[in-house]
Amino acid sequence: MRIIKMGAAVFAAVLLQACSAEVGSQAWCQQLEKKDKSEWSATEAGDYAKHCIFGDVKTD
């Protein structure tokens, strides 16, 4: 039973990861703009500056 619960948790994590936009994509920039800046991590702030402000936005 424990293995099934672990498998379900891993599946849920993978499923949620698939729903998030790729860092640096236009969708990711828009998602971050909607998020309160006080909730941004240092990595998110740096990536936002690099991709969304300075124009290195990934297009698919």
What would you note in describing this structure?
The protein is mainly alpha-helical and 60 residues long. It is 65% helix and 0% strand. It contains three helices and no strands. Residues 12-16 have low confidence and may be disordered.
Number of helical elements: 3
Average pLDDT score: 80
Query: What portion of residues is helical?
Result: 55-70%
- Gyration radius over CA: 15 Å
Task: Briefly note the structural class of the backbone.
Answer: mainly alpha
Compute the number of strand runs.
0
Query: What are the low-pLDDT stretches, counting only 5+ consecutive residues below 50?
Result: 12-16
Order of helices and strands: HHH
Shape: elongated
The CA-CA distance between the termini, in Å, is 41 Å
Labels describing this entry:
single chain; 60 residues; mainly alpha; 3 helices
How do the strands and helices of this protein lay out in sequence?
Layout: H1 2-19, H2 26-34, H3 42-53
